[in-house]
Protein 1
Amino acid sequence: MTDESFTRLLVVQDLDTLITQLAHRREMLAERAGLTALEAELEALAGERAKLEEQRAVLAATQKELEAQIATINERSGGIEKRMYAARGSSTRDLQAMDEEVRHLNQRRGELEDEELVAMVDQEPIDAALGALAARAAPVEDKVKALRDEVVQSQSEIDAELTTASAARAAEAARLPAALADRYEGLRTRLKGTGAARLIGHRCDGCHLELSSAEVERIRATTPDRVVTCDQCGRILVPT
Ligand SMILES: [Zn+2]
């Protein structure tokens, strides 16, 4: 182990820290840009729209069903009227019966038409509410679209930085002595991504705690071929 190994170890650590920061920044892009909040708003609006559309669909189905019943009545009364015209020789009683049935059918049609009108009128406020919802959603959709483009752009910039940093990291790590690399990886996994720290003055850059003067002297006096660790956090400590 040489001085150079520890200098390289710090380079690897700095690149690992950078990679972690970049990955975190990438993950937080949508939230930082306000995109997550706007997407939630759009989702809430879509929920309201779905409810209204369901109510509207029920009324539209009712209307359609009533229209079908009215069409059946029209057909039946049309058929009877045709028979009445054709059957001039029929008895008065038969004609009266047919006339009575047509009147009855007309009455029933009137009732169904009233019901249909109610179903149609009830759809009007729903259509108005749907229109208002669409008007509220439109600017949010525009903003979401613009922000998504921005986020995608920023992501690809970060991805480029990540690619560069990862390649540099791999190249530097490959030149570390295997034992040092293994020890570093073990510590890094255990200690939130930081396995090696600088000793800056009396302070460990890993745990940010001050070391005693005696401890600092001991570390600085250690030959550069030996690994020293921070008493407080256990990280590999590299005097700078
Ligand atoms: Zn420490």
Protein 2
Amino acid sequence: MKITFYGTRGSIPVCDPNFIKYGGNTSSTLLEFDDGNFLICDAGTGIRKLGKDLLNRKDSLPIRQLVIAFTHFHWDHIQGFPFFRPAYDPDFRIVIYSMGVDRRKQDIPSLFKTQMQSSYFPVPLGKMGAKFSFAYMLDEELIWKGKQVRVIKHQHPGDAYSFRFDLENGKSFVFCTDIEHGETIDPRVVELAQNADVLVHDAQYTEEELKVRRGWGHSSWEQAVEVAQMANVKNLYLTHHDPDHNDDFLADMEAKCQARFPSSQMARDGMSIIL
Ligand SMILES: [Zn+2]
Ligand SMILES: [Zn+2]
């Protein structure tokens, strides 16, 4: 499996020379499985380049079905969707995939139709070109394309979901962003991440910043380390970087994080992990 981060910034994209090293695009990650299946996690502004990269490989793609699974639908996780080029290509089938308990409560098709209505964008969803479908998988444990997936709801304004993939080769990958633990670390997240080879975890704030950002739905890097330690995770990647944290700030944060948990690093736009 190959994991490529196309957007690791939180809240809003940043275009600034001091934000080049870690990148300025909002959340979007491409998971390429060894059997040729793709799963895109979130459609922040990073999905624009992700889509262009996939189109460049169009002729060699084994499957032209692209599944987009959403942790939740806050702006920074959907704002790149109108610029996802495969969505304009009739050769592609795009599946908007909602995994997790309680998901049917949200009317997902109308959410996307609203985002693409003429008040906000010139091209409506139905005129984009690709074939769209909407799929729901409402169990906590599920099998997707033969892969074992576990999805839990975690605390975030309006709710958000964490994913765990257990692969055929015995490796495991956990994606957990836009989470606010509260006074103590959420034990369900620790359980989800237990012994994971890779944990990607929200680390928008420092401990000090978090004190004045209660209720905004995010974690400190210290909490991300705590989860990784409690869950015996092998490799930790921090994500959802605050739009006010420039490269110097994040480099300093990364060094502090590595002092506590050596096999940790900042996820950054363009970075790939092979599992
Ligand atoms: Zn977010
Ligand atoms: Zn959010």
Protein 3
Amino acid sequence: MSFMQTVGRGWDGFLGQFADLLFPSHCVVCRRGGAWLCAECMATFTSVPLPVCSQCGDPVDRVGLCSRCRVSPPHIDGIRSLFIFSGVLREVVHQFKYNGIKVLAAPLGQAMVELCAAVGGSVDIVVPVPLHRARIRERGYNQSSLLAGVVAGQLGLDLNERDLCRRRSTRPQVGLDIVGRRANVTDAFACNSEAFSGRQVLLIDDVCTTGATLEACAAALYGGGVRAVFAVTLARAHWQSVR
Ligand SMILES: [Zn+2]
Ligand SMILES: [Zn+2]
């Protein structure tokens, strides 16, 4: 680390402590002091009920594949999500993604660690779903990168947020049907095969709806020679409810 980086980090730390004094942390949901997301509000999040489809991770009535994956199974080795995207969690994700409350990455990423360890027992590298450069410029950060950073740190795995990229800007998936979602992200991603050849990847995203984005990322990674791709997302939007 260069001298200027060291100074920069120290200055960031100082500013962070100063900001804590001026703006003490308070829960983004209930405004209670002491944490950006309090334990009581986190306890209201609904876990994805088991069993789930062994491929896409959607809740199913009995163990095995869901009706969608029976017809056309995704190529990705498996997707799992921690919470149902509803209620208070929707508001928390909105604050995290669009209102600049980056500190929410710590409690949300921490919540994902156990599921990531269970799903990705053999993975050796953690990769966030990338945003396009234009979106990063506009938002200032990639929320999935922040989550991936927490997961990689906790599991002691390499984090690579540079070598899978979004090569074209895609319109938001909201409002598109499943065919539209797939078409919207097909070929949207590219990877540097030198970074991933022979690796087993844990892909991280905030919300999964149909899995089309994860599948498109996985396609790019498989093209780069990875051995396997598993994905874990913080939340699962119920596909039936957005169709
Ligand atoms: Zn709270
Ligand atoms: Zn499925």
Protein 4
Amino acid sequence: MDAQTVSLVQNSFKKVEPIAATAADIFYDRLFEIAPEVKPMFPAVMTNQKEKLMQTLGVAVQNLHQVETIVPVVQDLGRKHVSYGVQDAHYDKVGEALIFTLEKGLGDDFTPDVKSAWVETYTLVSMVMKEAAAEVPAPKAEKKGLFSRLFAS
Ligand code: HEM
């Protein structure tokens, strides 16, 4: 990740931080609109979840210039997400909701360069999460599926 990309992401995120609560509302509203199937994975009361999202984003963004220091944390996060029932395809929806949120939150400051810097960052983070997730044994629901397939017909 080059220095230009890192500073575009870091500087634009500084403008989102003061409106973090609104940004989190926009993000989840959009996510549940484009991917209603993921809503049951989340708690009914989302306050803590929203805080966690913005905090984690903040920490990740602050450390982008030394991305190797956040890789193990991001891998752990990816493994944790398997237990929430998150699948690879969901990452595209979350990425879409994130870009939408930045576009709304930053307005004219969301230039094409800023956009591609965020796309690059999200792609990298989600790739690390998905790779770590792929090494986790299939969740119980999958095993049940296999069991019933073995005993089918
Ligand atoms: C780069 C991508 C992502 C990041 C940085 C991220 C970040 C986080 C963080 C920090 C937590 C809190 C973990 C904890 O409690 O220790 C979390 C929880 C969660 N995430 Fe993600 N996430 C990402 C992608 C996704 C995707 C694609 C989905 C699928 C819909 C998803 C669904 C969830 C769910 C269901 C929870 C648990 C909610 C709860 O029970 O409190 N996340 N995520």
